[in-house]
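It is worth pausing here to work through a concrete case rather than discussing structure prediction in the abstract. The textbook approach is simple: state the sequence, then state the predicted structure, then interpret. We follow exactly that order.
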Amino acid sequence: MIRVVKLYGTTSSGGALTVTSTEIIRGHLEKVRWIDGDLADGVDATFSVDSADGVSPDETVLTLTDANADAVYYPRTPAHDNVGAAVTFDGTNEIYTRFVIDGQLKMVIASGGDTKSGGALVYVEV
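Step two, the predicted structure:
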């Protein structure tokens, strides 16, 4: 089942915005649908997961720079072997896997402009 988490809001007068999901989300990240709204050109956004256990480090899953238009992103992370090296498919292509989400999703916007609105819909397979 796909769950859609809305991370959307209005920036402060300084152009910053932080939105965190109200509940813990557990599943695989499928995609992020960026909604530019009326955010200023040059807007930057970072999507992360605040760990549910309070012990594991938080994990950044997507960073956008100058995200001036609506777009869809499919964030992935390189797969690793048992010693932590990235696994390669044919010596040149890395194998990527979906992010495992176990915590609260968070979006931080910088340079969004004075009281401008925008954000994202985050799709998680639960």
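Step three, interpretation. The chain has a mean pLDDT of 93. Residues 2-125 form a domain with the Jelly Rolls fold (CATH 2.60.120.380).
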